[in-house]
Sequence to fold (663 residues):
Amino acid sequence: MPPAYNVALMTTHAAAPAVPPLDQHPWSVRDSADLYRVEAWANGYFRINQRGHVAATPAQGIEIDLHDVVTGLRERAIHAPVLLRFTDILAHRLGAIREAFVSAMKENAYRGDYRPVYPIKVNQQHQVVAELADVGHDLGFGLEVGSKPELLAVMAMTTPTPDQLIICNGFKDARYIEAVILATKLGRSIIPVVENELELRLVIDCANRYGIRPNIGVRAKLSSSGDGRWRDSAGSRSKFGLFTSELLDMVDTLREHNLLDCLTLLHCHNGSQVQNIRNIKDAITELTHIYVELKRLGAGLTTLDIGGGLGVDYTGEQANQFSSMNYTLEEFASDVVYRIRSVCDTAEVEHPTVVTECGRAMVAYSSVLVFDVLGSTGPRRFRQPPEIARFHEGPLEDLPQPIIDLQEAYNDVADNRLLECYHDAQQARDQALTLFSLGYLTLPQRALAERLFWATCFRIREVRDRTGEEIEELASLDLILSDVYFANFSLFQSLPDTWAIDQMFPVMPIHRLQEEPTVQAILADITCDSDGKIDRFIADGKPDRTLRMHALDGKPYYLGVFLVGAYQETLGDLHNLFGDVHAVHIRLEDGQWCIEDVVKGDTAGEVLAYVQHDTARLKSMMQRDCERAVRAGRLSVDEARVLTRFYESGLDGYTYLEPPDAP
Ligand SMILES: Cc1ncc(COP(=O)(O)O)c(C=O)c1O
Fold:
């Protein structure tokens, strides 16, 4: 478009068409529920109440208002970021999983038992495992471990409940296996799952040495490929399990040692967060065929352990997509039971006890991360076109050509020219920046160019939204024009899967939901890492690059990230030395919520010690430096005291930002 410079146009900013609001009806809580798709992902555990707050709904007719909880915690000097763990949601999940299998077994006239186990790798925090050992025990849940340290924790924790099933997966050395065999002597119901030949030899040696006949499990390498992000957990390239011919060798070896009847469990794990039910059906069918064949060869098999993998529909799409799944818990249970029964019935083999290791689906729903927004940045304040006189004193004709072009692009924005104006504005902005780098533009002129560019983009977007025109290239405008909300948390510590594997979690404000959220923004955490951000959010159809949030008004503004109970705490790291957040256990008592336990997050001193700093030495070095400054007259005694106090209380304080009035 040739630049036709026109002074009259330069001064007619007010002529931009007023854009009517998109929706005239007053915003309601229902609109917020639709916008954040709460019903799609919450699985009945969360809703928005009439006060416009998110509430957890762990039981019929009972709600725990998250904003009340956060306010109550603040009164107790426990500040965001904070992880809320809802004990009653966890208990409900265990019950729901159990119920799904029990019903499926009833429907299918299945004659075997159901014995679920909780893989503690999913969340090893003591309180979570203790809860699972406690509530889970009453519901028949056992525990699964994948390493020596996990076994050490579980051996002690099951002291009062020795009948709880313990499944031992993962690579095992002689000590690990010796501990398993001795735990059998101690009365634990424990099964080592053999992953390779060496482990088998160790199990046999140890069993002979201690004179016991242990229960032995084996993991099979299935040919059915896995699915989704963790598909390599299954299939012939999997790290784990025995090939078919190795299974046959194992049978021979056990027979030689007169231990074939001890081979009681067959295991597979098809990968985590299986998104397509078809993969589950194929794997279970294959596994059950192996089961009946091994039984035919004389193995004492009684139990089929189908591993984990039951997904969580984080996005609520109910689709064969990562972060979602195309089946329900009930369908999963029904398909598993039906497949096992069919294969066993055909082979005239007794129905085995079914073990599941579905960890994610047990704990994901029970934790919510809540953090506060500290402030924002973004081009929104440049929505209106600039006053030229603020940036340029001389005659308008003296303005550099790219700035004139930008002004033209702004003035030309109209229904049928959106893309053309956008291209013109981009080109003129780039030219202005080049001229600045070559020294031909002053700083105010550069600022003017930027302001005109933003104003043009906002105007293009407004017209696009008003007309509903769908132009693919203009979709990026939403991201370009969005704000950045600075949020008081570390992505690397609290949501590592968002960073590492693009896992999506539902994110939304936990209050002000009766108010229309008018700001489109992404979230940036407080680490000094540009990766520390969330810029993919759950929306209708495909993920959205921005989240609609409320304008900041100087009062605390809290956001929740939901369904974070699985894997996030364990995988989190200490990037920038941001440590564990406070974790608070909330339980229902007589229909009211109460704080059951507070696990304080790491202090700065603790994380420094974790990376081998001697905090006592750090304190004394600071003390000495202050004294030197006092002697040299650079600090007063009072100032030195303030500084040393600040330093010492800083070491004892939270690693995250706290309000100024925090004690
Ligand atoms: C052997 C085994 N069992 C169970 C699980 C738990 O899987 P999920 O949490 O997806 O159910 C895992 C995790 O990958 C695993 O490796």
Observations:
- The chain has 24 helices and 21 strands.
- The radius of gyration is 31 Å.
- The longest helix spans residues 443-467.
- The pocket of pyridoxal-5'-phosphate is lined by residues 119, 122, 144, 169, 269, 272-273, 307-310, 357-360 (CB under 6 Å).
